[in-house]
Write a structure and sequence with these properties.
Blueprint lengths: L3 E10 L4 E10 L2 E7 L9 E4 L4 E4 L1 E6 L1 H7 L3 E2 L6 H14 L6 E6 L12 H7 L5 E5 L4 E4 L1 H7 L11 E3 L5 E6 H14 L4 H14 L2 E9 L4 H8 L5 E6 L26 E5 L8 E4 L2 H16 L3 H7 L3 E4 L2 E4 L6 H13 L3 E6 L2 H13 L8 E4 L2 E2 L1 H10 L2 E4 L3 H4 L1 H7 L6 E2 L2 H6 L4 E3 L10 H9 L11 H8 L1 H7 L15 E4 L10 E6 L2 E4 L6
Parallel strand pairs: 1-4, 1-5, 6-13, 7-8, 8-9, 13-14, 15-19, 19-20, 20-22, 22-24
Antiparallel strand pairs: 1-2, 2-3, 5-25, 9-10, 10-12, 11-12, 16-18, 17-18, 21-23, 25-26, 26-27
Helix pairs in contact: 1-6, 8-9, 10-11, 11-12, 16-17, 17-18
């Protein structure tokens, strides 16, 4: 049966994603043939001239948070605020504009770019919006702040938090600032009380994924009680949808074991569990002891430049210890024994562990634990690996785990890392180091913490603003965001654009590494799903 023939394009062909001028034939839900431009194409029922375009495998985003992104459309966007006073003024205006809303949700605040280096306190929120329930979330979705009314509604205490997850004043009272587990549980409870249809909001976020050429979206955290909801969202298969389950209490709460993980289907991938080994801004890092002096001096210079004590105060409150010649920031969420026991339990139950490990100390712990429990190659995923050292890279390579990094973090959090001087001692988003060590590497967005656009993430992986020696080649970047990403999920697409493979395609109007290029068509299983075909 003849199908649809696309001609005149550059095809990023095969599992190597090698670009070559040629044609591509789709029959049903499969690619039935590809060929170079000088090879006569076969007959077809439908001919599509895509001259000047590039056809890539559909993008597979192995780590995003569509279930959070949808809610952001109903809240206040704080990404453009440049200072604490500007944030408070905007929050006051938003509260007055919608005085009867049960919750005022503020998203994407970036206090690490403000001179004050902190989010508002509950008292400051109360002053600009008295009596209102307010939750302000940082862009990394690992920290936030709540008003006094919100603290009362949510029951914010230190009961379920690790040391420091609820900031306290000198009298031991919560200031409103919350981190990690305490923040994640507050967010879950606030969203459960906020108006809005979670299914419709998530569907809106998934539709945006499709418009950017994403044919498979992997939701990095779903509480067990929302598993059935995700099954309903996965039914249309546009995009393909899969997910990892986590703790029911909140995004960043510790897992209790596989007994609470739902049985059966997890969408378009295998069963998976999400563990947080460290935090976001509070990640687990080790560096040479000499880094302490350098980092402190950097904070002093920033304080002088900002004319505000915020940078120095922020540096001084970090949990740092010096052991011999090593400086450690101790933000591990599990002990080594606890982690090994959890990994063993999940692997035995047939669930793939996906471990958030942002700092090199957490990465070392993840890789060491996998080897300790005898995890087979490809049985687990280590996410983020933002700050690395050679020892951590070697351990990851020896563990056999997949590694997922987010190139978009180079623009979202890169300036913060450089300003703090950490890039002098550690590798930042070290894609080159991981690939050279033989680690199977995938790229992802972690949206909303990082930018969603796959083309933008490809370009950042190749043309890096920080540590350019860590850049990937164009073909390596495309592979990491398509075929390797699909393979890491055990999902369609691991063979790339080749005969017999599922026809998931992203068609661009030019070279994907040209900043002006955009995705113009998205195909899933041989059917164009974006833009939708005209009817009537």
């Amino acid at each position: 049966m003849a199908g649809t023939l696309m001609t005149g394009a550059t095809i990023w062909a095969g599992p190597t994603c090698t670009p070559q001028p040629g044609w591509l034939l789709v029959t049903g839900d499969r690619i039935t043939a590809t060929g170079a431009h000088d090879t006569p194409p076969p007959p077809a029922d439908t001919m599509i001239d895509v001259a000047g375009c590039h056809i890539l495998p559909g993008f597979v985003d192995t780590h995003l948070h569509a279930t959070v992104v949808g809610w952001q459309t109903l809240g206040v966007d704080g990404s453009a605020w440049t200072s604490l006073p500007a944030a408070l003024a905007a929050i006051g205006v938003a509260a007055a504009a919608d005085p009867h809303a049960p919750w005022l949700l503020v998203w994407n605040a970036r206090p690490f770019r403000w001179p004050q280096r902190r989010l508002p306190t509950a008292a400051e929120l109360d002053a600009v919006a008295p009596g209102r329930q307010i939750l302000v979330s940082g862009v990394d979705v690992h920290r936030g702040t709540v008003s006094s009314q919100a603290m009362r509604a949510l029951g914010i205490t230190t009961r379920r938090a690790q040391d420091g997850d609820v900031s306290l004043d000198r009298r031991g009272r919560p200031t409103g600032e919350i981190w990690e587990q305490a923040y994640g549980e507050a967010l879950a409870r606030a969203l459960a009380s906020a108006p809005g249809d979670p299914v419709a909001l998530t569907r809106q976020a998934l539709d945006r994924c499709v418009s950017l050429g994403i044919t498979h979206a992997h939701e990095a955290y779903v509480p067990p009680q929302h598993h059935e909801r995700m099954l309903g969202l996965a039914a249309p298969a546009s995009p393909r949808l899969s997910w990892a389950v986590g703790a029911g209490e909140g995004l960043l709460s510790p897992l209790e074991g596989p007994s609470v993980a739902p049985d059966g289907d997890y969408g378009a991938s295998g069963r998976e569990a999400k563990l947080f080994l460290d935090g976001g801004d509070r990640c687990a890092v080790c560096m040479p002891a000499r880094a302490l002096g350098r980092l402190t001096w950097q904070a002093v210079k920033e304080t002088v430049a900002a004319r505000h004590p915020g940078p120095l105060r922020d540096a001084m409150r970090r949990r740092t210890t010096v052991q011999g010649r090593t400086l450690r920031l101790e933000y591990l969420r599990y002990s080594d024994r606890e982690l090994a026991d959890l990994l063993s339990a999940y692997l035995s139950a047939g669930l793939r562990p996906r471990m958030h490990a942002l700092g090199n100390l957490a990465v070392r712990q993840a890789a060491t634990a996998l080897r300790a429990v005898g995890a087979p190659a490809g049985a687990a995923v280590i996410d983020h690996l933002v700050l690395l050292d050679p020892a951590a890279v070697d351990l990851v390579a020896a563990s056999g785990a997949w590694a997922t990094v987010q190139p978009g973090f180079l623009t979202t959090f890169g300036p913060q890392i450089v300003d703090g001087g950490t890039d002098r001692f550690l590798t930042v988003v070290g894609g080159r180091s991981l690939l050279d060590a033989g680690v199977p590497l995938t790229l992802a967005s972690d949206h909303p913490a990082g930018p969603l656009d796959p083309l933008g993430n490809l370009r950042l992986a190749v043309r890096r603003p920080i540590q350019p020696a860590q850049a990937l080649t164009p073909a390596e970047a495309v592979r990491a965001l398509t075929v390797t990403a699909a393979a890491s999920l055990g999902a369609p697409g691991a063979g790339g654009l080749a005969a017999g493979e599922t026809a998931d395609l992203a068609i661009c109007d030019g070279d994907p590494f040209d900043p002006a290029t955009r995705v113009t068509q998205t195909w899933i299983s041989g059917r164009r799903v974006w833009p939708a075909a005209a009817t009537g």
